[in-house]
């Protein structure tokens, strides 16, 4: 019953099937966190209050300015639309258009209004700031894309000697003709079941309807025509809606039950510079924070954007790629937020390359622009200008060089692990720093 | 820049590459446990004392009886050897041999000696009990295998009319002839470089040298000849020896620093029947306990047994199979401890089948035998007869039926996860129960 053979762990055996240990990791993770959860309940009791957000919104009078700010953003959309109409009619020159758009976008910032009201609460301001950032990016895209369309149209006019000028078109009741471009024969139109499949061409795209669709659609990149679905899948929409309701409450519950006590217990050690205790707090914060971030990712990029897309019959559902397999930081940033990534490539990276900017400098510029918006979204609602979010984003540049090197030199798995590490540990460092300084500036004494 | 495509999480995408999340599990596990480790150090300081075991052995006079007990086991080995010699010489009948072997094995138990000295400390008793269990299993195998050999030899004698009887052989200086059986021509012997490759046949195997090799070899199943290696790989042996030294200290350190505080803080909640706190303690214990068990597995089944095998030039290194991929409890028990599993199959399961016992009943018998030895190894050193270890092992039977059903009905991965769960959670339940009752019986008041 014996025969000569090596043990499986010896290299001589050539055995390398350790997939069972991955299941062990999953099981251990569940068990460890079940314990932390139980410990938390035993220590603090139930802190979850599902209706807290509602009372906060209803009874806090300083929420309403944020709603007004959000509604006010339509003014900038209206202005941008009419700048484009003027440009299409040749009422103003291209350079004047650029100047006007720039002025419009520069004014489209809510921060001076938020700063004046020192007690506007953070979550509401974060929401209105985010809306303004989205409007800013969308209008930038609208202006730039229409510029490309206009240049193409002008070329076509001069080459193919098209009889009508854009001025003529637009003066003759554009809105009624919008869905039926004159260039398309009516015989062909009759055959189409779905009129949304009709391709709209410049300058027929310069309608309120078209712009409003873009403003509501889950994309930051303007196009005159988007791929559309033929109808709304009600059961799909219902599932996404249930996810939104459930995950929103889950996020709130996790923050109330798990994050707030950790943060409260971290203030004092930071104040007293207790190195190891701060590190322990940091690690304690990292797990729930990461879990909340993961749930938020699914909540926003899958549930919310897909629900919105379903309602809008918007067919391009690529809101994220497989960033969880990212072997380099660069791939992570290219994959986790596709609407923003697409915008950065189309409206920042490629234009920079086309004016002769080197590839690496263009990449760095994109990271710096992203760093600016991260800082903006943190500083304005918190009324703190510490530039840590900016610093955190710029740190992604050396980190991305490092992960690329690790993935090439060692295993791509190690690269992936470093990406996860930076996600798990990077955020809580920033959060602790901001929360501590928020406490310090808000309250003069620390309990 | 847009095209119709579904999100990756939607089933329509057909995407299923989530391997990055496995890396996340590993990273999260490391981070969570780093935190627990840091919290432990902050709370208790350094509890590790690498030389504690040495002082415990040297200054505790009740350790020495255990050493004497271990040395005393050689008496039973000596007796078993001579029973076999008498049998081979036909001095005693086969039935007398069975009776004598049974009596010898029944006496070969240290528990009455341990029980008389109530304060013999647990670890020493556990060691001597384990040695006796190993001796017991080896001598059982020795007796049974020699019975099979003898039966085969007698058949060959009657069939092939071999001239010499075993009695003649053994009366004529067996030891000198041992390595050179008469049946093998000397011309063939000269060609062999390594005399250990010479096959020893019954009754030439009945030598001290052969028995001592078996007693020291890392196997519980006796054979007259084992596959051997041609020499000792010194660097391999050195690596195993370093592993033994390091892992032994690591195990001690983990127990002192991580397990003992958790156990001490669990006594009071158990005493007061605080359900949730007990569960929290249980989960808190499960992670270090499982880690210690994993390290112990590697320490004993890889480092110790391979080092021993290298010294003994023993070539069959299959001390474990890939139990970490076990999809059923049955496979786990078949794979994690191959020496015992081999013994059970060869000396319990197959003999039971051969006398007409049904397959399932034979499997249950093996589990019950294993349950008996588990209970024995716990009860004797702790002086407690609670039968929980026995119960725990018998519970493996319904659990194995359950995991087989899960693996077939659902995914084999779920079966694997349940196996891990039972390992991670089953042990700490038993440990908490025994430790609590050990405290209760040892100390009358609980702090």
UniProtKB/TrEMBL annotation, chains A, B:
<feature type="transmembrane region" description="Helical">
    <location>
        <begin position="291"/>
        <end position="309"/>
    </location>
</feature>
<comment type="pathway">
    <text>Lipid metabolism.</text>
</comment>
<keyword id="KW-0808">Transferase</keyword>
<keyword id="KW-0812">Transmembrane</keyword>
<protein>
    <recommendedName>
        <fullName>O-acyltransferase</fullName>
    </recommendedName>
</protein>
<feature type="transmembrane region" description="Helical">
    <location>
        <begin position="62"/>
        <end position="83"/>
    </location>
</feature>
<feature type="transmembrane region" description="Helical">
    <location>
        <begin position="90"/>
        <end position="107"/>
    </location>
</feature>
<feature type="transmembrane region" description="Helical">
    <location>
        <begin position="241"/>
        <end position="259"/>
    </location>
</feature>
<dbReference type="GO" id="GO:0004144">
    <property type="term" value="F:diacylglycerol O-acyltransferase activity"/>
</dbReference>
<feature type="transmembrane region" description="Helical">
    <location>
        <begin position="119"/>
        <end position="140"/>
    </location>
</feature>
<keyword id="KW-0472">Membrane</keyword>
<comment type="similarity">
    <text>Belongs to the membrane-bound acyltransferase family. Sterol o-acyltransferase subfamily.</text>
</comment>
<feature type="transmembrane region" description="Helical">
    <location>
        <begin position="21"/>
        <end position="42"/>
    </location>
</feature>
<feature type="active site">
    <location>
        <position position="374"/>
    </location>
</feature>
<dbReference type="InterPro" id="IPR004299">
    <property type="entry name" value="MBOAT_fam"/>
</dbReference>
<feature type="transmembrane region" description="Helical">
    <location>
        <begin position="352"/>
        <end position="373"/>
    </location>
</feature>
<dbReference type="Pfam" id="PF03062">
    <property type="entry name" value="MBOAT"/>
</dbReference>
<keyword id="KW-1133">Transmembrane helix</keyword>
<feature type="transmembrane region" description="Helical">
    <location>
        <begin position="385"/>
        <end position="406"/>
    </location>
</feature>
<dbReference type="GO" id="GO:0005789">
    <property type="term" value="C:endoplasmic reticulum membrane"/>
</dbReference>
<dbReference type="GO" id="GO:0019432">
    <property type="term" value="P:triglyceride biosynthetic process"/>
</dbReference>
<dbReference type="InterPro" id="IPR014371">
    <property type="entry name" value="Oat_ACAT_DAG_ARE"/>
</dbReference>
<keyword id="KW-0012">Acyltransferase</keyword>
<feature type="transmembrane region" description="Helical">
    <location>
        <begin position="418"/>
        <end position="439"/>
    </location>
</feature>
<keyword id="KW-0256">Endoplasmic reticulum</keyword>
């Amino acid at each position: 019953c014996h025969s000569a053979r090596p043990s499986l762990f010896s290299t001589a055996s050539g055995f390398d099937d350790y997939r069972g240990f991955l299941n062990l990791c999953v099981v251990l993770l569940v068990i460890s966190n079940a314990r932390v959860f139980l410990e938390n309940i035993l220590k603090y009791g139930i802190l979850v209050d599902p209706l807290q957000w509602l009372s906060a919104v209803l009874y806090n009078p300083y929420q309403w300015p944020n709603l007004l700010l959000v509604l006010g953003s339509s003014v900038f959309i209206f202005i941008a639309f009419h700048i484009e109409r003027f440009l299409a009619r040749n009422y103003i020159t291209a350079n004047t258009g650029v100047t006007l758009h720039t002025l419009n976008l520069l004014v489209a910032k809510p921060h001076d209004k938020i700063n004046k009201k020192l007690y506007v609460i953070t979550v509401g301001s974060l929401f209105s700031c985010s809306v303004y950032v989205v409007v800013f990016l969308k209008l930038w895209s609208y202006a730039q894309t229409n510029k490309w369309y206009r240049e193409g149209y002008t070329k076509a006019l001069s080459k193919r000697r098209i009889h009508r000028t854009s001025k003529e078109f637009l003066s003759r009741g554009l809105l009624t003709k919008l869905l039926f471009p004159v260039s398309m024969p009516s015989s062909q139109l009759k055959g189409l079941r779905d009129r949304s499949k009709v391709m709209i061409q410049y300058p027929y795209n310069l309608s309120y309807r078209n712009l409003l669709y873009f403003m509501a659609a889950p994309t930051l990149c303007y196009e005159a025509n988007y791929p559309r679905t033929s109808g709304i899948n009600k059961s799909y929409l219902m599932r996404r809606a249930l996810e939104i309701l459930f995950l929103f409450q889950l996020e709130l519950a996790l923050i109330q039950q798990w994050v707030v006590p950790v943060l409260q217990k971290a203030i004092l050690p930071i104040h007293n510079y207790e190195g190891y205790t701060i590190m322990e707090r940091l690690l304690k914060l990292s797990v729930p924070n990461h879990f909340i971030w993961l749930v938020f990712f699914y909540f926003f990029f899958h549930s919310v954007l897909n629900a919105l897309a379903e309602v809008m019959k918007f067919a391009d559902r690529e809101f994220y790629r497989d960033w969880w397999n990212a072997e380099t930081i660069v791939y992570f940033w290219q994959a986790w937020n596709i609407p923003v990534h697409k915008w950065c490539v189309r409206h920042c990276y490629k234009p920079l390359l086309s004016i002769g900017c080197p590839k690496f400098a263009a990449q760095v510029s994109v990271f710096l622009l992203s760093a600016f918006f991260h800082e903006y979204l943190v500083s304005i609602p918190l009324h703190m200008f510490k530039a840590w979010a900016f610093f955190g984003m710029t740190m992604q540049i050396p980190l991305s060089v490092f992960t690329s090197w690790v993935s090439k030199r060692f295993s791509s798995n190690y690269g992936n692990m470093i990406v996860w590490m930076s996600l798990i540990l990077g955020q809580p460092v920033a959060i602790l720093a901001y929360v501590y300084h928020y406490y310090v500036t808000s309250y003069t004494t620390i309990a």
